[in-house]
Amino acid sequence: MVSPKMISPKHVCVIGAGVSGLAAAKAFSTRGHKVTIIERSADLGGVWEPARSYPEVQTQSPKDLYRYTDRAMPEAYPEWPTGPQVHAYLNDYAKSFGLNRMLRLNTKVEGMERRADGKPGWTLALSDKAGATTKEDFDFVAVCTGQFNEPRELSCPGEETFKAQGGQILHSSKYNDPSIAKGRRVVVLGGSKSATDIAVNAVKAGAREVTIVFREAVWRIPYFIGGLVNFKRILYIRAQEQMFPGWGASALARFAHRVTAPLVWANWRGLESLLKAQLKLKQCKMVPKERIEDGVNCSVPIATPGFYPMVADGRIKAVFGSFDRYEGNTIVMSGGERVQADVAVLAIGYKLGVPFLPSAYQAKLVDADGQYRLYRLIANPDLPDMGFVGFNSSFCTVLCADLAANWLVRYADGQLANQPTAQAMRDNIEMMLHFKRVERPAAGVYGGLCVAPYHYRHFDELIADIGAKEQKRNGLAERFLPPDADAYARFLASASDYRAAA
């Protein structure tokens, strides 16, 4: 480990002012670095920026899991805070730690290249709201654009005719006013929580008809399993996580999994039976074909309250397939079914990528099959003076970003207790890619940037790397309780302290 006295303050560019960008800015500024946050929107918050939030949006995670280690959400907030409440929390966090003074809004990163002066770091091409472009040098870049940055597009034949007849086509991020649906025939494409949220909202807003279109039925988890138990007490605990074979398993661990396989199988079949009964999946003709344990990853959505009852009684019509083409005021599905529509909402997610990174570095970051080459889902040894915060997607988004940011600043400063060599990083990346491609393909979603269901395992690695002297709670708390942000605050505080100095 490098002596703290040898660490010079860096000028760090944090790209993105959402959950992850604020975490990174806080981590680097706390260690004595100068931080500039570049945000292309007019406000902070990322997906929680009001202009990007659809009506009645709320977190998928309970508030005690959707928080930073150094700031709890207000006690008055409900268990699952609303979009405006999360935005207010982030805004308050930024003001409390002076992050708002580091913000440069309405500024877009157009491109970047290694500094020409031979010094470590990058030169970024930045454009302002008026389109004027300038170039600025930074010693280190934290990419915090995350996975919900650039909306996916879908172009189908007949779109122009559909629009000419008064039809409206919009991405889910633009569905921000329920009056869009009132009195109109709304067709939502997608199977995510945003898709089911918008379908339910359209019904409540007085839509004439509501149809949701998705490729296949998926397991959705209700806020309270069996109507009684908060799902965090079942799916967020280490005991459940240990039912999934993990990476780098020893021969003894593999043997233990084989021995306990019948019990694990019974656990999942019991959960499936409970969900089928509670959500009336057979009545809705929406029983998934896939076993629930084979698909647990970051794409498992929470069941929107009211969605299944509305499908069961016909207020929402469910169609399996995708859009094939538009014909007049009708959308023709891939299976041939025709649905009349006035509004088509494309809840089809976002494009994953770092478009401003030069192509030569893109090739080092992303393999041909779309899998990301990131050690701990944070850094790549072949992309110097750069790291990624918030790319470790999970059910505990804020906590993941917080720990990743604290890991990254120490990595950048050479202050990790387990500071990896470039070759060790490459070897680990290869091992993890093999695990995601061969041993557990479900872990390959979102470019392999998914922590779930291995939250504790991921956090264990980051905390050990950081060098926390305290790393775990007592045994029962660790096995049968969800992650505790306050506990991770203590773990972080137990690591060696340092600050960059000129």
TrEMBL record:
InterPro entries: FAD/NAD-bd_sf (IPR036188), Flavin_mOase (IPR000960), Flavin_mOase-like (IPR020946), FMO-like (IPR050346)
Superkingdom of the organism of origin: Bacteria
Pfam families in UniProt: FMO-like
Protein's UniProt keywords contain Oxidoreductase: yes
Keywords associated with the record: FAD, Flavoprotein, NADP, Oxidoreductase
Family in the record: Belongs to the FMO family.
Protein name as annotated: Trimethylamine monooxygenase
Species classification: Bacteria, Pseudomonadati, Pseudomonadota, Alphaproteobacteria, Hyphomicrobiales
